[in-house]
């Protein structure tokens, strides 16, 4: 699935994958910045808690966004593919000034929402400038190529170390992995890129987000880091020659660890320390 | 401590860090190749089990190297710094055609052997062409800057994520970390390089070795991978600005994952897929 077409003269909305476990009690840096992009106290947020099997997940985000001043928060759950065709709920999404997808199981998101009017509405909204954010599973689903499963706790990529599936396809420039540092997922992100290095890997730590702007510059917010894995200069990948648990040989991968304030341009593939490089000692 | 001076016209011996848990029962690829470098059936191996508190560690390697055909294997344990001054034991090291340091606690190696005639003998032997190998703690001690401790299970480097100590100093070109994939140590290896990017990080998986030749080309043997972390092109490190648990921003790190057959030149900093690139499908 390719990203929805952006109208001439228009701009795609922000895409905001969050690594999970974002702060919900204290300064709420990540969620606060997302809310600001959605219009702050004028925001109409649609929350999609479909990935989660916990009844309280949607209500929790309703309280958090409401507590930070959003004008309206609508929790829209979809338990079946039929739900995802219901006209009233689709209309709620179309009227939102921001869409937020909670964590849980990303295969619930892809199997229930994939190809439905809800998925089409999310894509169309984003193409028309509406910010779409997601945390944990809700982050993974945002891109075209989604990590559906694979190894955690390993840094060496292995032949069968990752399973990919189609996601919502808001962008095809990145493959997103979440809980990155906490679950040690570099190996599976590398394995995903070893198949086809055209995309850029974004490994997002917990309580951290990659704010992907309409200009395709990634800005980092939160207490952790976003690890950018750029395989554009890859000299060699042995992915075609190995199988099973065998490690994959990959030569020439570029790595950037971005903390809050740093940025990365997905078009030019250049990292910038931004304000960090001018911090006074 | 700088590497011992190699005599004019002479060649340094191989330096062989092994990531721990190398195969000792089946094909013994890693230990077999090490033994070959030491002279095969003419080899006189000195085994130093000082890192380990288990009495059987030395005997185990004596049996393994003996079973593979080494002419002589001498287990030389050092429990105190005084032991490491004993003339007879030092002479055993000086007569060896290969020196092998077992796993355990690398601070036992550095505190008991550091600066003693044993350490001097190991350095001098290596400078005169004798191969020196070590597994796990015995791998970490080989280089000048040794990782003495720090975070495991994290991929994001953190300000206090690594503690360095002086090692045996056979080479100052690399910083070695072991059990690399199994204990998820990219974060601490990156943190070590964030202090000063001059060295090259070698993250060695279990049952895998980096055979560092006299020409400073690293060849990989074993069932896992060696992750080469090259920070030579580092654009920015925030290590001077952060502290505690804060993640470190690092832009422009080069990563190569080498499997058996691939190599990396520590001088030119170029990776090669070697025979892997010509494997028939």
Automatic annotation (TrEMBL), chains A, B:
Enzyme Commission number: 3.4.15.6
Top-level taxon in the UniProt lineage: Bacteria
Catalytic activity line of the entry: [L-4-(L-arginin-2-N-yl)aspartate](n) + H2O = [L-4-(L-arginin-2-N-yl)aspartate](n-1) + L-4-(L-arginin-2-N-yl)aspartate
Phosphoprotein listed as a keyword: no
Coiled coil: none
Keyword Hydrolase: yes
Active site residues of this protein: 136 (charge relay system), 179 (charge relay system), 206 (charge relay system)
Keywords: Carboxypeptidase, Hydrolase, Protease, Serine protease
Annotated function: Exopeptidase that catalyzes the hydrolytic cleavage of multi-L-arginyl-poly-L-aspartic acid (cyanophycin; a water-insoluble reserve polymer) into aspartate-arginine dipeptides.
Protein name from the UniProt record: Cyanophycinase
Species of provenance: Pseudoluteimonas lycopersici
């Amino acid at each position: 699935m390719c990203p929805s077409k952006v109208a001439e003269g228009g701009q795609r909305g922000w895409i905001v994958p969050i690594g999970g476990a974002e702060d919900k009690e204290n300064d709420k840096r990540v969620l606060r910045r997302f809310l600001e992009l959605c219009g702050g106290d004028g925001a109409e947020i649609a929350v999609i808690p479909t990935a989660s099997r916990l009844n309280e997940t949607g209500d929790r985000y309703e309280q958090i966004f409401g507590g930070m001043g959003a004008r309206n928060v609508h929790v829209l759950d979809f338990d079946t593919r039929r739900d995802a065709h219901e006209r009233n709920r689709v209309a709620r999404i179309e009227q939102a000034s921001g869409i937020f997808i909670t964590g849980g199981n990303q295969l619930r998101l892809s199997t229930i929402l994939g190809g439905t009017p809800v998925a089409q509405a999310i894509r169309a909204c984003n193409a028309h400038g509406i910010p779409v954010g997601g945390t944990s599973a809700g982050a993974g689903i945002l891109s075209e190529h989604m990590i559906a499963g694979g190894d955690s706790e390993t840094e060496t990529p292995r032949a069968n170390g990752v399973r990919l599936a189609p996601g919502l396809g808001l962008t095809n420039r990145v493959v997103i992995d979440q809980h990155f540092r906490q679950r040690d997922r570099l190996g599976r992100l590398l394995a995903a890129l070893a198949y086809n290095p055209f995309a850029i890997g974004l490994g997002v730590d917990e309580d951290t987000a990659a704010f992907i702007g309409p200009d395709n510059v990634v800005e980092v917010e939160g207490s952790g880091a976003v690890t950018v894995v750029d395989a554009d200069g890859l000299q060699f990948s042995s992915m075609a020659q190995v199988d099973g648990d065998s490690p994959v040989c990959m030569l020439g991968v570029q790595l950037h660890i971005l903390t809050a304030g740093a940025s990365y341009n997905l078009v030019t593939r250049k990292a910038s320390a931004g304000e960090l490089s001018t911090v006074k000692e």
